[in-house]
């Protein structure tokens, strides 16, 4: 802060103004007990402390009308002695006295008039004095600024815009450029002036940027330079910098009505000008502008995992041609990188906000976080109310896989996936894990069971991770755990190498062993035939796979309900679906958002199948009472599967061995069957003739009647109990039914 006596005229020369600016900057960092005076004649400060003097910036007046109060302590005389002895001695009137600068004159607290030398002689020597209070509260008050100048002048109906005036005057000017920022051109705002000069620079072949600016005492910008992009000097002499200290610029000043006008325009350049459009786009930052609407579009496309090249092509189609896009692909890449960095900032807080939003929309949704000793996220598990309801009805068989790692932290992403009554994959929960250890999996499975109401699944296929297997045995001891067949198949491919595809018949025969075997006898017989045929008795991997066949072989789980899930293929399909939504290296908050979109996609497909079941007509192939009854009980997808088994039942004849209790389903053309295929299957009937049990175990495995039963003499009786989803939704049932003889 600064105080200038009224008789002190202000020097407005540039050197004096710069000196005053330096003094003001220096005064802000001085200690509170500094006492300094400034000698206008000598330009030196003196006193008992560091110099802390600020020049007056009020435009020459002694102090603004509502200026600050300045309290002068008794010790100020020592500080002023170096400026003018007589003036300094006249500023005090005895020990302990103090005076205040108010309304252009010094005042004393006792009401007496100060000595004449204070308002007279001292003003001839002392230009500006800044003395903080020696003790007590700070004596300075912030100088109140005047009203801020508007950023742009108000619009007027009759006023012609600068660009419009330049376009209209092009024919009369007869110049090489259409847009001409001539001297005296008036603009409503600074951005308008920048855009017009940028158009001029595009025509001429150079780029621009903002240069120097000045502010007035009110803190408002009063001068702005827009300079050539090559202005300034390079940091190093021998460098590839494009800085050539180019003098081209336009200087803008404020008008009385708060507009801007061109006060100076330098057109000469000291460097070659650009000619082609590609040169201008690549070399000039001012011509790589991405407007706000395009930025929003790019953000939405990138959030939905649209790659950079496709984003640029889409934007080019909006501009009709890629050549019309006002920025390059390199500029787009930089903008996408900036978006990624912004999304990754404060990721945990943003993730919690996403969960809060989901919880506000779905009160039944929940999430749980496991943290380590450093309070960092170790495991994150979440689900929603819809998934909890689906688990309640279809949670007998689920699968879990944690092989997806495309995220910012390289954390494995796992999915709990089940099967609904439309034979569609349903997502029951998502998890991000930092460690794949026994303790982490135990925590995960315990929390998942708690979220789902405490009911354990009956079957859960996973990959061959040992830590996961141990955790399942400890947390869910009554749950049947089996290995995924897909991982077995991958091991065989890796061990056999080129021979896997070189042998023409090996691949389909090996797949038949994995997928088509129904009973243990068929599986073991065909496996030995396959090994003997291709001389694989000494292959270590094939031997190891066979030794653990009870963990992955389909016949060994014939009595366990798996909903036809013998692998984590449904998880792999969900992961493949996730890749279409989640961009590589995405942060955690975006990962959770995109997961919700996958849930919506699954629900939309389920809604289509519901409509297809409720409103669509049924075409009966055999016109049997059993077929008509099945069309009313099963969903459309399951009814189509039932008809395929009904068609296969025509190849079997039923032979009664024990009256009403035991039957043998014998294949009609047994000679044409595969060598490993069993020609007959035993079907047992309960005492009340209400339940059938075939040794193939297909009904217990997936809830669908097999082709070995006497379908023409059976009637289906649905078992609903807790397997009906929702009130009044009788069409959404599990696949299980019970049978009885007609």
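^ structure tokens above, recovered residues below v
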């Amino acid at each position: 802060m600064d105080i200038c006596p009224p008789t002190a005229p202000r020097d407005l020369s540039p050197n004096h103004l710069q000196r005053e600016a330096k003094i003001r900057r220096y005064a802000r960092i001085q200690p509170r007990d500094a006492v300094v005076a400034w000698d206008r004649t000598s330009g030196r400060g003196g006193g008992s402390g560091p110099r802390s003097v600020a020049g007056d910036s009020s435009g020459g007046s002694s102090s603004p009308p509502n200026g600050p109060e300045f309290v002068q302590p008794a010790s100020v005389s020592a500080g002023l002695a170096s400026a003018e002895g007589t003036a300094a001695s006249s500023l005090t009137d005895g020990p302990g006295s103090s005076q205040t600068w108010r309304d252009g004159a010094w005042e004393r607290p006792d009401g007496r008039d100060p000595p004449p030398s204070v308002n007279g002689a001292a003003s001839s020597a002392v230009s500006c004095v800044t003395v903080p209070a020696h003790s007590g509260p700070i004596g300075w008050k912030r100088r109140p600024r005047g009203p801020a100048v508007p950023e742009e002048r108000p619009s007027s109906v009759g006023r012609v815009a600068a660009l419009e005036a330049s376009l209209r005057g092009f024919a009369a000017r007869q110049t090489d450029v259409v847009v001409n920022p001539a001297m005296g051109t008036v603009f409503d705002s600074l951005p308008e002036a920048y855009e017009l000069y940028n158009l001029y620079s595009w025509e001429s072949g150079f780029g621009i940027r903002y240069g120097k600016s000045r502010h007035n005492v009110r803190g408002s910008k009063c001068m702005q330079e827009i300079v050539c992009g090559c202005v300034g000097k390079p940091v190093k002499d021998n460098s590839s910098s494009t800085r050539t200290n180019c003098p081209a610029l336009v200087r803008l000043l404020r008008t009385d009505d708060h507009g801007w006008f061109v006060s100076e325009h330098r057109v000469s350049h000291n460097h070659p000008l650009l000619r082609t459009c590609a040169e201008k786009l690549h070399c000039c930052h001012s011509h790589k502008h991405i407007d706000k609407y395009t930025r929003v579009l790019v953000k939405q496309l990138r959030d939905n995992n649209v790659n950079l090249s496709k984003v640029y092509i889409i934007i080019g189609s909006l501009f009709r041609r890629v050549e019309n896009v006002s920025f390059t692909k390199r500029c787009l890449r930089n903008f996408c990188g900036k978006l990624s960095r912004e999304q990754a900032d404060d990721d945990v807080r943003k993730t919690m906000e996403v969960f809060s939003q989901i919880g506000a929309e779905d009160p039944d949704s929940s999430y749980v976080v496991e943290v380590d000793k450093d309070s960092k996220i170790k495991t994150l598990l979440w689900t929603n109310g819809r998934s909890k309801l689906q688990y309640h009805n279809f949670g007998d068989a689920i699968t879990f896989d944690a092989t997806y790692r495309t995220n910012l932290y390289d954390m494995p992403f796992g999915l709990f996936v089940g099967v609904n009554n439309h034979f569609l994959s349903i997502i029951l929960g998502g998890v991000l894990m930092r460690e794949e250890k026994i303790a982490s999996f135990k925590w995960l499975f315990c929390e998942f069971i708690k979220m789902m109401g405490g009911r354990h699944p009956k079957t859960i296929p996973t990959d061959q991770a040992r830590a996961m297997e141990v955790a399942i045995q400890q947390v869910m001891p009554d749950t049947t755990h089996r290995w995924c067949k897909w991982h077995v198949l991958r091991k065989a491919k890796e061990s056999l190498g080129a021979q896997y595809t070189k042998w023409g018949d090996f691949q389909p025969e090996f797949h038949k062993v994995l997928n088509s075997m129904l009973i243990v006898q068929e599986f073991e017989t065909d496996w030995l035939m396959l090994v003997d045929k291709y001389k694989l008795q000494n292959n270590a991997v094939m031997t190891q796979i066979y030794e653990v066949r009870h963990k992955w072989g389909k016949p060994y789980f014939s009595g366990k309900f798996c909903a036809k899930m013998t692998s984590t293929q449904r998880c792999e399909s969900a992961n493949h679906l996730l890749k279409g939504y989640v961009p590589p290296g995405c942060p955690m908050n975006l990962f959770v958002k995109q997961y919700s979109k996958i849930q919506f996609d699954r629900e939309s497909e389920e809604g289509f199948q519901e409509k297809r079941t409720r409103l669509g007509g049924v075409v009966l192939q055999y016109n049997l009472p059993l077929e008509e009854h099945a069309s009313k009980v099963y969903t459309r997808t399951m009814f189509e599967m039932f008809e395929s088994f009904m068609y296969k039942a025509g190849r079997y004849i039923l032979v009664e061995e024990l009256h009403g209790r035991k039957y043998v389903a014998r294949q009609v053309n047994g000679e044409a069957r595969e060598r490993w295929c069993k020609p007959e299957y035993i079907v047992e009937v309960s005492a009340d003739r209400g339940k059938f049990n075939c040794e193939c175990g297909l009904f217990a495995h997936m809830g669908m009647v097999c082709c070995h039963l006497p379908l023409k003499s059976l009637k289906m009786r649905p078992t609903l109990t807790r397997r009906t989803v929702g009130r009044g939704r009788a069409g959404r049932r599990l696949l299980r039914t019970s049978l009885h003889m007609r």
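The chain has a mean pLDDT of 74.
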